[in-house]
From TrEMBL, chains A, B:
Organism: Pleomorphomonas carboxyditropha
The protein's name: LacI family transcriptional regulator
Sequence segments annotated as region (Disordered): 338-360
InterPro entries for this protein: HTH_LacI, Lambda_DNA-bd_dom_sf, Peripla_BP_I
HTH lacI-type domain ranges (all copies): 9-66
Length: 360, 360
DNA sequence: TTATGTTGCGCAATCGATGGTGCAGGGACT
DNA sequence: AGTCCCTGCACCATCGATTGCGCAACATAA
């Protein structure tokens, strides 16, 4: 009567109990029973027994047989970083909504680790792999290709598989225009008061810089290369850059397009060393979402990459028959000044528990 | 010659190629070959072939046979939240260091989802489960117990399994004392200038409040209940609380112990509505790590929960034979004012790429 | 020469679920 | 009665790796 303690019940147990064959039990429990013309009453009985004995299918066995696992992988450079953890969050949600089990692994932008992790995941017969921000997406591609595993690049495009990335050009354009438009008609921005700081020679930054120059040229008639200062994705270097430009002209440019959260942190470090200064009349743009930026005394306009849409698009691609290595561009969202701190989630929570009200 | 495209090589393939039996191949490849007295030269040959044909073991098959999977699960309330994503990060790192494959699933503090997710993970024959911040750890315990899966509570203790949690009393004590000591001898803090805002009736908050009162009594001779204002974990409610106390006395108490990052966000919202005010002479404590807090114009003392140690301890427990449901307390760390923004990681990165230099 | 090890490895069952195929029984129709 | 079809299900090989057991060949000891 009492189910064996510590021993999971199998279809064979249920077969015994119900008098049906294991294959019938299997069919009933995996939903293929109508196709196999099992009588409704038989199915009901087996389902009842399954419930009663807390049956749950052994996915290793099932996966072995079907050579699929219900697992889906995500390779991530690093976890603990807002943009990436947003992606992980969306990934997890959507994977689970499809009944898939998410495995997230961080590979530190190391090509060897990327390949090794991909291989490791593949040895679990994962059904698909998302490759986010990889240093070497095409290396991972090879591994997946060899194993016949569907895979999609996220956030950084590869040449061999479909990719979903932020539309950096569009984001850069929107942010640059927003910066210029933030200034009143009676004290308009001039061309050399507008700088871009941060980033390095990568795909994303190049697109943003291109947009920056394009808008700048369109709006001011010209744009020169030294308006852009690529510091790398480093808080310290960004801080030094701010320091430099500050020294050079005795104050900060009135409008700065900061290329990432990391670089924005450099800016904050700069600010802490210049507490006394007056920043009214300044407007900062940040190509990343940093909620606390809304607390600053001057306006900060942000671009929030739409992790949710990116992941959604990637899943959509999985649904379609496998496609050529197209790049899908996802427009990022503009976050107007002072709006980051109040989330739409504020309203829907019981006062006692609003963990979902994400703070940082 | 060329390995079949798209078809993974198995021990049977290698058996054919090497002339050895599948069991010998298996033994060689899983390392048990010495125990089975396989000749060294045979082993070498098989390993060579395995390499050549890019063999990798099918973990579903292996797992099925051994009824273990090499997977390890983590149940998390939510991802996108600094404390939890730190835990996820540490978990991922340590799991992989042990050759385990991490599966992180967020369950939104919903008891039913917690159980369901645990069952789902168990159906993959996970080797162990960490249960972090669960609403109903003992419910999850039952599920695990029934399946014979080792499990450990993290961050919130259960009564039925070993738990690893922050030492909230100690953290509360340290933070309260640091707040008091932050004031100079010539303008010392008085008892009713010290408040605690945020949190609700839960295990963690209770311990912190107890410490708060204890220190307050010790240092000031008395402590009254209305120095504590539990607002729930809500930014909005915390903001309202600050507003209330501000109105009541015409200014903020000079020292406030804020109970969490979420509540701290409420404080920031309060500040944005009171930009003009002078906060010199104020000191804020926050029982959570919020890097950007270091940017504020007044000192913010933070308590950083030691996710890394918590996870490490949890893994250590796994190594030991299963133990009684003991609670392990991990002392959190004090983050002195203005120190959050400069990480030790600043130094070790190439300028071009310091993603690991976590910003927020 | 016979008893006793030791070395090196193969045999075959097993883990649990799946799905192609086949087959018995019953009804309908010629 | 013979043919055909449909219903409802069982049989059994299979996925790939693991492991208890056994056995041949050779060495050593008595």
């Amino acid at each position: 009567m009492a189910p064996d303690p510590r021993k999971k019940t199998t279809i064979y147990d249920l077969s015994q109990l119900s008098g049906a064959s294991p294959s019938t039990v299997s069919a009933v429990l995996n939903g293929s029973w109508r196709k196999r013309r099992i009588k409704e009453s038989t199915a009901e009985e087996i389902q009842r027994l399954a419930e009663e004995h807390q049956y749950s299918t052994n996915r290793q066995a099932s996966g072995l047989r079907r050579s699929r696992s219900g697992l889906i992988g995500l390779l991530l450079p690093i976890y603990d970083f807002h943009h990436f953890s947003s992606i992980a969050q969306s990934f997890e949600l959507r994977a689970r909504r499809r009944g898939l089990c998410p495995i997230v692994v961080s590979t530190h932008r190391d090509p060897a680790e990327e390949r090794a992790s991909a291989e490791h995941l593949i040895s679990y017969s994962i059904d698909a792999l998302f490759v986010c921000g990889a240093a070497d997406p095409d290396g991972v591609h090879e591994v997946c290709e060899a194993a016949g595993v569907r895979h999609i690049n996220l956030d950084l495009s590869g040449t061999r598989a479909p990719s979903v990335v932020s539309d950096n050009y569009d984001g850069g354009r929107v942010l640059t225009e927003a910066l210029i438009d933030a200034f009143p008609a009676d004290a308009p921005l001039t061309v050399d008061e507008l700088m871009l700081i941060g980033g390095r020679e990568d795909e994303a930054t190049r697109a943003r810089v291109r947009a920056f120059h394009d808008v700048r040229s369109t709006r001011f008639g010209r744009s020169d290369a030294d308006a852009v200062d690529l510091t790398g994705y480093s808080a310290r270097n960004a801080k030094l850059a701010f320091e430099r430009h500050y020294q050079a002209r005795g104050r900060l440019p009135r409008a700065v397009f900061i290329n990432s959260a990391i670089n924005f942190e450099g800016f904050l470090r700069f600010l802490t060393d210049h507490r006394g200064d007056d920043y009214s009349g300044h407007v900062i743009g940040c190509f990343d979402y940093v909620p606390f930026a809304s607390f600053l005394s001057f306006p900060v306009i942000m671009i929030r990459q739409d992790a949710e849409s990116m992941v959604a698009t990637a899943f959509d691609i999985l649904d379609r028959p496998s496609e050529a290595p197209v790049v899908h561009l996802i427009p990022p969202q503009l976050v107007p000044p002072r709006t980051a701190l109040t989330g739409p989630l504020d309203e829907i929570h019981s006062p006692g528990d609003d963990l979902r009200d994400r703070s940082l």
